Structure formats: C-alpha cells, structure tokens
Amino acid sequence: MFHALVDADDRVLSGDARFAELNDRAAGRAGAGLALAAVGALVRIARGLRVPVARTVTIGDDRVDGDWHVRAVPGEDRTVALAATLLRERPAAAAAPGMIAEVSPPAGAAWTWEVDAGLRVTRLAPEAVTRHGLDPVVVLAQPLAGLFVLTAHSDGAMPLLEAVSNARDFAGQAATLRACGERVMLAGHVRHDVGGGFAGFVGGVFTDVPEASVPDGLTNNFNARLHRVLRMPLGTIIAQAESIRAAVDGPVDAHYMDYAADIASAGRHLLGLVDDLVDMEAIERSDFATARDPIDLGEIARTAAGLLAGAAAQAGVTIAPLSGEASALAIGEHRRALQIVVNLLGNAVAYSPRGGTVRMRLKRRDGHVRLLVADDGRGIPEHEQPRIFEKFVRGDDSEPGGNGLGLYIARRLAQAMDGALTVESGAGEGACFTLSLPDAA
Questions:
Q1: Which structural domain range is residue 322 located in?
Q2: Which of 64, 168, 190, 267 meets the CB 3.0–4.6 Å disulfide criterion with 238?
C-alpha cells in the first residue's frame, strides 16, 4: 500500500515510505513533480472531473512491474489524495524475454475480468461499473467468489472449477452477480506464467442468458429489481451530470455547472441508499454469512483513512495516524470489515467541526482485536445511543446526507463476524465507536 498527497500543480506534498520508494525509482522527489506517469494521468482525470477516480495501473522499472489499484480523491483546493493497494508483482517485461504473450478475453463478451492463480480479481473492465454499478475498490484483490455466485449444471459440473484443476480454457459457467442478482454466463482463457504454470484467467461475462440456464427464484431477486429500476438509471444521471460539470463538450455557464454538481450529489446520495438497501436485504436473510479469514485490522484502518483522505481535507478535518498496535490479526471478512471502518470514519469526519481531528487506536483485549474511532463532534446523549443502531435513525437529522442505515448495517456485519460494534459518548464530548472482532492470534 501507499498514500500520498499532490498539489494543484502535481507537486508531491507528502507521501509514505512506500510511495517515496516508487517515486524515487522514477527519478522523482518530495516537493517536485509527481514522477509516476500513470498515477499522474489519474490525478489529472480526478481533478478535472472533480470526483474520485480509481484505476488499476502498472508501476515498475527494469526489474519489477507492479499492478496497483490506485484511488485519486480531489480536494476543494485542487489537491489530490492518493491511496493505492498492490495487487501483484511480476518480472518486468524487459527482464523476462521468455514471458508468454498476453491472453485475449473470450470474443463477444459484454465485459471482461481477470484473476490471478489464487482466483483473486486483478482487473475489472469499466463496463462492469457502468452496466452493473460494481465498485472496483471493493472487488479488486478479492476472491472471484465475492463477485459471482457460481451455479452448477444439472449433472453437478462446474466448468470454471474443472478448468482450474486442468489449467485449461472454460465456457458455459452459469453464475449470478452478487451485487445485483443478475444472471450471467462466464467463459475464460487460461493464462500461464513464465514456467508454463497456471497463472489465472482472462474472463468474459455474457449477459444474454436463457431462463433455463439458472435455477428458479432468481428472476424476482430483490437486488436484481433494484439494479434494473434504480441503480443503472442513477448511474447514468450521475455520469451525465458530471460530464456537464466537467464541461467536456465545451464551455458551460457557471450556474449550470452548479446545478449539475447538485444533481450528481443527489444521485450519489440515492445510489448510496440503494446500496444500503441491498446490504440490508442481504444481512437480514437467514442464510447470510461472512468469511472467516485472518485479516489485519490495522491495514484495514489505514486503507479506510486513505479512501477518506480527500473528504476529510475538504471538510477541514484531520485523520490522525493509527495509534496503538501497528497491526493485529483478527478473524473476519476483509471487504465487510473495510465497509464498517469506512462507515465509522465517514461519520466521524462528517460530524467533526472544521479543524477537528479523528483518531483511531488499535488494541487487543480479552481475545478480541478492537479498533477505536473517535471524533471531536458534539457527541451523542446517552439516551440516544441505543437508537442510532436502529434502521433509518440518524444521530442528527439536521445534518445533510445520510439515510440512517449505515450504523444498523455496520453493527449487523460486526455481529455476523462474531464481533460487536459499540459507542461511548456524551453530549459535547465527541463520540468513540469500537469495532471488536475475534483475535486470530
């Protein structure tokens, strides 16, 4: 991982040690221009559109190439905060002349994806975002099973799994998109490493699926209906509003740019509500379960801080470096734990006064790993504290944004991972939320 901040002229204002190492290898230095060309292009896109942008880019030298998922978040002062996660490293092309050529995806696919040898997603085509509202930040580096629910044939065959065992191409794998419940068909071409071993798939998604190819009951899936009725139209509205705001087709009157910004903001709020309703439907099912993997709660906290760096800077709030233990392994699901921490940090930033500080602390106690998120806000009266974890209840209805589902979902997710989410606060004293998960040690 790395984090960095660049100014309006793409000069490096700050960056952690990992970023400095990469930037120095590209002949850059602190205070000078950003030397990582691919990252610089992403910075300029985010600044021009004035919205967060995420891409997978390659950063490397003559020895090693690294595929990084980089998120660029613009601030009001035209600074851009960067947060990146390393997906994989491989020998640089110049250093490995015997490397097998890139593999093409299956022909005719609606959109494409790629996974490594561990079946973790390394690339997601932009069409997956525009067509289905998928979030690359959530999907990338996660298991393929987090993106698709695979369906066995009537004889029990699973083409994708058989292809993994035999390191060969596959086709005709029925599946359902977890995010929206849409039925799809998967195919993939195998990728080999330098030594000829299995290195993953370059896959395609086919959306024209016959009714007989999937089990009954999915046609009325709640998530699928939300996707069809709300998610896709809202995504189109947001994209068009941002295009007007960015004046991509020529000069636009300043008043209309402001109107477009309001439309985009309202669209994102509604899209967030759709996502929360989808999550609520999922967590309230009797068969809902989360993964039981070792996860580093310290790394998750730092990732969440990077994702919210731009919003915090815009609000004039500082997210202090994580204190306490640098890392602590807990048992849970990485994606769901990150979702909880992003929610807690986002609330802390939103309710902190300008000039305030949000603090995180990591500690172990009584067989659990605890992450504390504290703010300098107005606090929550004791009699209100139980209510803020209920559906559609907000801590302060006078504040803009929010729908009253975030903390309800966060607590249910924590409980699903055999953990807990609690709050300590008092009127005028700020609030401290604690996420507790079982210790993996």
A1: 293-438
A2: 267
